[in-house]
Amino acid sequence: MFHQTRLTKSVFNLYINSLLPLVIFFVHQTTATFAWTTINKVQSASAASPPQISTTSTESSIQTIMSDIPLDTLAAHANSYASANGIQVERRRDDDNSSFFECAPMSLLPNAYPKDAFQQAHDLAPAFNELIDRVSRDAAFLQNTLGGGVSTMDPYTGNLLQLYQQVYVNEDTSSKPAKAADRLGIHRTSFAGLSCEIASLHQYLTTRFATETSDWMEANQKIVSPDNNEATTVAVGVPENPALQRIPLAMKTAYDRYAQRFVDTVNKKNLVILFVVQDGETNTVDQRLLEFALWETHGIPVTRRSLTKLHSDLELNQESGAMILRSTGQEVAVVYFRAGYAPTDYPDGDDGIEWHARLLLEQSRAAKCPSLGYHLAGTKKVQQELARPGVLERFYPDDKQKVEAMRLCFAGLYSMGDDATPEDLQAAQNVLDGKEAFYVLKPQREGGSDKDASTLQLGENLAEYILMERLFPPQQRAILLRGGKVEGSGDSVSELGCYGCILVDHEGKVLHNEYAGFLLRTKFSTVDEGGVASGFATLSSPYLC
């Protein structure tokens, strides 16, 4: 048992990164997290204090650069562009429960990012896509990793594991249609629609106002590329973000596969993609952009339902696995979860109607995104286990080169459960010895409601958390907008996530696997929390240099 102490937790700890032992399941799917160690090595916990990162320049020169930026003009153009192109979020009024739309939280200008690190994340996305699939099909690994203490301390994860065993593993209860279904992985899908438009906005601002913003951009480029001198540093700019094209394409591929496999029993015109959403969702524009792209580009209809409403609307043929929406008579070809990642999405309790709806969806022959296996593969405990020496080789026994490439992206992850190794215990001891600033305590769940662990008493409940090495990236200046207004300017840190899409059949054959875009989130460096929807971070874009 660990001694009692208080451990500070920062929800965003992998700043300026994009792929780690992969699978921070936003689970609006998975996000891989890749530590940008080529630019700023993580300082050892043996050091006396966290590294002090220098910023753009002296305060006087920063003020000079700030004074040269036409802030009001840039903000006005950003707001107009955002309104014209749907870079918006939905808000609820407290008085009458009506809603309105406002500009999404955003960084006014893109953040400098080294092009080599970006390319590394880009190139590794397919490998991490495949890793998640292989983990999802290893029932013994998932049971050994998530059973026991993790499921006991986190009943929500325990429920997911129990459903996984019921549908895919236990011979008496498993579903043949579900086991024969294709598996669709759209890893890191949060803000896919808005991130594309943000990239376009930043491309517009940095070209339309190139002269006015050049000093600002050059100063930040020197921070992230300190080894390059002024003569050799060549900015590439904001790259194209294909997420709004590639993610709908992956859904279409799964949809077409379903129609092809069941053409004798299905009228394709009656097929639909089901978006499982939250009641009271505010990130509706981001989701609708994907929906509109599916219809306008591919002619595929989308319908939206919450788990609560699906309970009474689902009709499942247990023999064939066909799933019909009673209210419309449509058959579901693809299930795309934008809800179901936190206990709050199951308000009726452990044996309630939402869990029953989740079971019916999983038992169907529709392609699930994510399936329960993919969902479980995104827990922090699985992420931590993959980081242990020799574990990746379990999934890639004959591909040493791929294993080494992925392992380069790992940060330190340490178990706080009964399976803790001497290395894990040493990390915990470092915290007890006053080096908590070098670590972050991460809960199992992502994308839902993170448990507030900002002041956590270390004790028996630690099994539901993972201790992670904290990264200290270079800080750069940013101007952040919230609600269409300038929130302020200051030193910032960012997190890069790569989108990836994969479609795999029931035999494990990969049918589709590719990098599908990026998301950069930026927040002021003094802020510990980090969600965009929760009001801490903003949407941004990488300015490659």
UniProtKB/TrEMBL annotation:
<keyword id="KW-0547">Nucleotide-binding</keyword>
<dbReference type="GO" id="GO:0005829">
    <property type="term" value="C:cytosol"/>
</dbReference>
<dbReference type="Pfam" id="PF03199">
    <property type="entry name" value="GSH_synthase"/>
</dbReference>
<dbReference type="Pfam" id="PF03917">
    <property type="entry name" value="GSH_synth_ATP"/>
</dbReference>
<keyword id="KW-0479">Metal-binding</keyword>
<keyword id="KW-0472">Membrane</keyword>
<feature type="transmembrane region" description="Helical">
    <location>
        <begin position="12"/>
        <end position="36"/>
    </location>
</feature>
<dbReference type="GO" id="GO:0005524">
    <property type="term" value="F:ATP binding"/>
</dbReference>
<protein>
    <recommendedName>
        <fullName>Glutathione synthetase</fullName>
        <ecNumber>6.3.2.3</ecNumber>
    </recommendedName>
</protein>
<keyword id="KW-0317">Glutathione biosynthesis</keyword>
<dbReference type="InterPro" id="IPR005615">
    <property type="entry name" value="Glutathione_synthase"/>
</dbReference>
<feature type="domain" description="Glutathione synthase substrate-binding">
    <location>
        <begin position="272"/>
        <end position="377"/>
    </location>
</feature>
<dbReference type="InterPro" id="IPR004887">
    <property type="entry name" value="GSH_synth_subst-bd"/>
</dbReference>
<comment type="similarity">
    <text>Belongs to the eukaryotic GSH synthase family.</text>
</comment>
<keyword id="KW-0460">Magnesium</keyword>
<keyword id="KW-0067">ATP-binding</keyword>
<dbReference type="GO" id="GO:0043295">
    <property type="term" value="F:glutathione binding"/>
</dbReference>
<keyword id="KW-0436">Ligase</keyword>
<keyword id="KW-0812">Transmembrane</keyword>
<dbReference type="GO" id="GO:0004363">
    <property type="term" value="F:glutathione synthase activity"/>
</dbReference>
<comment type="pathway">
    <text>Sulfur metabolism; glutathione biosynthesis; glutathione from L-cysteine and L-glutamate: step 2/2.</text>
</comment>
<keyword id="KW-1133">Transmembrane helix</keyword>
